Amino acid sequence: MIVQPIEVIEQVILGLMIGGIYGIIGVGLTMIFGVMRLSNFAHGEFYMIGAYIAFTLVSVTGGDPYIVAPLAAIAVGLIGILINKLLFKPLYEEMKEIKGGAAFYFQDLRFIMLTIGLSILFVDLALVLWGPIPLSIPSPLTEVRVIIPGGLSFSLARIITFIVAVATLAALYTFLKVTKTGKAIRATSQNPSAAMLVGINTYKIYDITMFLSTALAALAGCILAPIYNVYPTMGLDVVAKAFVVVITGGMGNVIGSILAGFLIGLAENLGGLFLGTEYKQVVAFIIMIIVLWLKPEGILGGKK
Amino acid sequence: MLGISRKVVLETAKYYIVAALLLIPLPLAGDYVTHVAILVMLYTITAASLDILVGYTGRLSLGHAAFFAVGAYTSTLLAMNLGVSPWIGIFAGGIMASIFGLILGIPSLKLRGPYLAIATLGFGVVVWLMLINLDWLTRGPLGIPGIPPLPSIGPIDFRNKVSFYYVALLFTVISIFLLHLLTKSRAGRIFVAIREDEDAALSIGVDVPLFKVYAFLVATFFAGISGGLYAHYLRYISPEISTLSESIYMLSMTIIGGFGTLIGPVMGAIVLSLLQELLRSYLEYRYLIYGLLIVLVMRFFPKGIYGIIELFLEKAGGGK
Hints:
Number of strands of chain B: 2
CATH class of chain A: Mainly Alpha
Order of helices and strands of chain B: HHHHHHEHHHHEHHHH
Shape of chain A: globular
Oligomer: heterodimer
Helix content of chain A: over 70%
Number of domains of chain A: 1
Number of helices of chain A: 11
Distance between the termini of chain A: 42 Å
Structural class of chain B: mainly alpha
Radius of gyration of chain A: 19 Å
Distance between the termini of chain B: 37 Å
Strand order of the largest sheet of chain A: 1-2
Order of helices and strands of chain A: HHHHEEHHHHHHH
Number of helices of chain B: 14
Strand order of the largest sheet of chain B: 1-2
Number of strands of chain A: 2
Number of domains of chain B: 1
Strand content of chain A: under 5%
CATH architecture of chain A: Orthogonal Bundle
Largest sheet of chain A: 2 strands, antiparallel
Strand content of chain B: under 5%
Radius of gyration of chain B: 19 Å
């Protein structure tokens, strides 16, 4: 099989575009892990629900998916806060009373199983509410094709998706670096007890983190929906990859996750080109296994 | 040598003999019940084997279905391509699953918590993708139909559900008995020590990596055996048996049943399988209820069904 240079360039661009989305989903997951020490296996479901809410808003109001996306993201973020208050917070309260290595392992298991349960529940809820048939959200932007020199063309929808992804990541980074809340989030992530000592309300920080994380996942779902279809198990297809991104970037490391998102997107598309599309998915896992083996603290080596 | 006395072996054996005897008349209840019972027993072996890893050694695995599938495919391919008797093939499947267990177990020795969960999840996905893509060997996503049944012994034909039921019963009782003895042996106590405090175990001279690998070997071997039985019972397998949701199903049996108790996962396998059967008529809402159950049990009863029964017995016993 001979690969043309133009094909490589096309896959690089497509890889970076999907990498931006991986970055958004991965950042949310890594923030939850960093701040709350929680591996959220239901993360993909917030992405899925975001897409479905966007679909419903579009079919009710007739608006464009890119315009209703922030609304859907906020709605899902509120669901995230609700879940945190109902399910996670009581567990953290219980956790304060237990000590010892095994107790933490059990608590970890409990959280993982709880989020797996949530994931199963949400997938079926979507199935009951919206049906099993993949839905498509029409957007006029998918029809417009932008031709770039060299004979390549991309739909305007993909380009806007990429711009939104990069802008969101930049905004999130600024928020975490500059604002007081952002600093409190980072402080809690670095040392929860010290953060509490200086007067940070950790439960409030958990709420905010949960909101941001789920809203980001939902936003990714909304802006991808016009390009791909919306179906109940779409979150399951994404969550494994989100974890790959998070581990490659170093768990809890925001910048690492953003870089890893682009890296995985790029590697996957180039891998698909050179090895055949059926091995596209394997590439991500191989990268993760190499990272776990050689640099378990992530590609940035523990720097945050 | 194993750090287990003959007395303990005999005492434990008593319970299993009684359980086996009690289960002998079950096929009288009809073909459907027999069929469900066979599947429940196969899941029981898998859930109990997973408990050695998750419950006793404290090594979370989200890829157990992959080993079940490796066992099923090994035994099937040996029987269909090389004409190996399934009676031998089932054990070969167990050994092959253990080899895969080593491939995952050794590189993941240092990983803990979520890292291990994702590594095992990734391994499961890779096995699934291999089964789909190596179609010259596995026939890809179509799966393999027409798998030979267990060869008959004299007049006993194992295409018959009732005959197969007794094979499954024998395998299940022996597997869980062996796993039970393992948990009572020196190795079993070392597993728990690793779970409770790895560094402390290391400091008193336990070869922690060796026993972690040992736990992986045992757990994957029994998953492979169970997979082989499954293949020769249903006589059709596809890559679907190795998916993440299958692994999660097995893990939820172990955890909802009450991990680290061995008998808990057995109850988990029975309860969840029966629940699946009972909810079959509410097809759409099945997973809604199932997911909600997991959430509620994990929120309020982290010790699972076993913990609930324990609590109940304590109350019934007047809080002694």
